[in-house]
């Protein structure tokens, strides 16, 4: 995803909320599916299924080809950042380790023209570089397969970019300066380039080391595993690959609360004193949320988890540290479950292109519906009758989920319509086989980027049945498919 569509989701939830409660979906004791999951209560797996060195197979995105560079593969970003609220100045040193996928006449990364370059080196040698439009262009030819380390020094005032969507909760993308002089960011489908030079496309997942230095009394918060605080510098590291849109950076006067999740997962909640206290009870359900998800979808796929609250109307599944708007405390329980679900569906396994955003959002939305319907005692048959009406309206207004309009990014058709499609598979194969399929999809594809073709092939192989027509019809039909 990018953010949970609060307004559109609320419409759907209101519809199901008016139904007569019946028995929620039955979840029997599920067998441990082979080969990769562990019994409940065991530590999360330590040998990820995908590459662990940050290597990827980048592709040109079919929806937003102007972002990203399929000619190179970033392996690791080392970001050393300093924020000065008084002057609204971000100073950074980006150490970018990459390899050329093909012969390159120059190195091109996405980067904002809001910054002044203070020098660029390639493998320690100074190079000529410029920022043209939203591209950093470095005079550094590379042969296919060659590796290089590009170090970029920069300073400037962050600037956001428009969100290509008609969503009611639409906000500018990228690093946002708050009225108090702090920072926060949500950046799907692009916008990481507003705070560091990056291959800003979902297919190029990389490792990260992030250090952020802030004034005394302020906190620096980022995605990844917390690595401690030294003076006013906060450090984070991601030892498994992260897509650029799943990174986060938040600076402000925060207070931290810690907890422990299933089998010892460290949880961290960051909130603003005097602002966010009414949301804390929902945050403290993090351990229960993770336990509910692990029972159905296998071990939590990362070392740590947490939530940071920001001044947004939405929420984002940023990896290991969810970035959540605190303005909707009345609905935050289901929304947090949605963002935690994304740690499996979207973060551990990421869509390789924005045409297949449904692959992230359909799963997270369906998991959210399963949770809320079970919580509220609503039968799945009642839910389906009502949600089909929503599906029909969404296809008429926004089109089918498998053919998204570039100007209508992350609207509710890529959430609710594919959630209904997953429900058709669920009904056909039953609870045990469906949850085994979901768990194996994540465990066998952890730390990779996948697409529609890979998902269809997996479902067909896992079930021994041909779901190709069902999946394609539900993704591409301009009208709600009939139920056979």
UniProtKB/TrEMBL annotation:
It holds the Pfam family Peptidase_M1. Transmembrane segments: none annotated. Residues 1-24 form the signal peptide. Residues 37-55 have a biased composition (Low complexity). Residues 289-474 form the Peptidase M1 membrane alanine aminopeptidase domain. Its EC number is 3.4.11.2. It catalyses: Release of an N-terminal amino acid, Xaa-|-Yaa- from a peptide, amide or arylamide. Xaa is preferably Ala, but may be most amino acids including Pro (slow action). When a terminal hydrophobic residue is followed by a prolyl residue, the two may be released as an intact Xaa-Pro dipeptide. Its cofactor is Zn(2+). Keywords: Aminopeptidase, Hydrolase, Metal-binding, Metalloprotease, Protease, Signal, Zinc. Gene3D superfamilies: Neutral Protease Domain 2, tricorn interacting facor f3 domain. Residues 26-62 are annotated as: Disordered. One of its GO terms (molecular function) is alanyl aminopeptidase activity. One of its GO terms (biological process) is proteolysis. Belongs to the peptidase M1 family. This is Aminopeptidase N. It comes from Allocatelliglobosispora scoriae.
């Amino acid at each position: 995803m990018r953010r949970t569509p609060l307004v559109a989701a609320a419409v759907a939830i209101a519809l199901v909320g008016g139904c007569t409660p019946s028995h929620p979906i039955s979840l029997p004791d599920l067998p441990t599916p082979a080969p990769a999951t562990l019994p409940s209560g065991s530590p999360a797996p330590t040998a990820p299924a995908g590459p662990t060195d940050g290597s990827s197979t980048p592709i040109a995105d079919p929806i937003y080809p102007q972002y990203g560079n399929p000619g190179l593969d970033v392996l690791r970003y080392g970001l050393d950042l300093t924020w000065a609220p008084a002057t609204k100045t971000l100073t950074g040193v980006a150490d970018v380790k990459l390899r050329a996928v093909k012969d390159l006449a120059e190195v091109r990364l996405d980067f904002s023209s809001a910054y002044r370059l203070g020098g660029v080196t390639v493998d320690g040698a100074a190079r000529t570089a410029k920022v043209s439009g939203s591209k950093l262009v470095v005079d550094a030819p590379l042969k296919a397969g060659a590796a290089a380390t590009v170090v970029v020094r920069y300073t400037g005032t962050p600037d956001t970019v428009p969100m290509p969507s008609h969503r009611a909760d639409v906000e500018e993308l990228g690093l946002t300066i708050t009225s108090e002089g702090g920072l926060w960011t949500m950046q799907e489908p692009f916008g990481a380039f507003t705070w560091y030079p990056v291959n800003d496309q979902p297919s190029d997942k990389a490792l990260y080391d992030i250090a952020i230095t802030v004034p005394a009394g302020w906190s620096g918060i980022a995605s990844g595993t917390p690595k401690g605080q030294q003076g006013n510098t906060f450090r984070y590291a991601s030892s498994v690959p992260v897509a650029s849109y799943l990174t986060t950076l938040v600076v402000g006067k925060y207070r931290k609360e810690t907890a422990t999740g299933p089998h010892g997962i460290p949880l961290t909640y960051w909130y603003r004193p005097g602002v966010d206290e009414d949301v804390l009870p929902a945050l403290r359900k993090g351990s229960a949320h993770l336990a509910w998800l692990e029972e159905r979808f296998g071990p939590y796929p990362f070392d740590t988890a947490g939530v940071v609250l920001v001044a947004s109307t939405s929420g984002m599944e940023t990896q290991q540290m969810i970035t959540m708007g605190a303005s909707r405390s009345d609905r935050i329980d289901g929304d947090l479950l949605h963002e935690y679900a994304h740690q499996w569906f979207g973060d551990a396994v990421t869509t390789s292109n924005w045409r297949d955003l449904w692959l992230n959002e359909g799963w997270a939305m369906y998991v959210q519906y399963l949770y809320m319907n079970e919580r509220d005692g609503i039968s799945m048959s009642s839910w389906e009758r009502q949600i089909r009406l929503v599906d029909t309206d969404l296809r008429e207004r926004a089109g089918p989920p498998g053919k998204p309009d570039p100007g209508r990014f992350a609207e509710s058709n890529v959430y609710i319509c594919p959630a209904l499609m997953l429900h058709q598979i669920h009904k056909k194969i039953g609870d045990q086989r469906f949850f085994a399929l979901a768990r194996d999809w994540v465990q066998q594809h952890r730390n990779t980027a996948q697409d529609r073709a890979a998902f269809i092939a997996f479902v067909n192989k896992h079930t021994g049945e041909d779901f190709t027509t069902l999946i394609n019809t539900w993704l591409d039909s301009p009208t709600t498919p009939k139920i056979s």
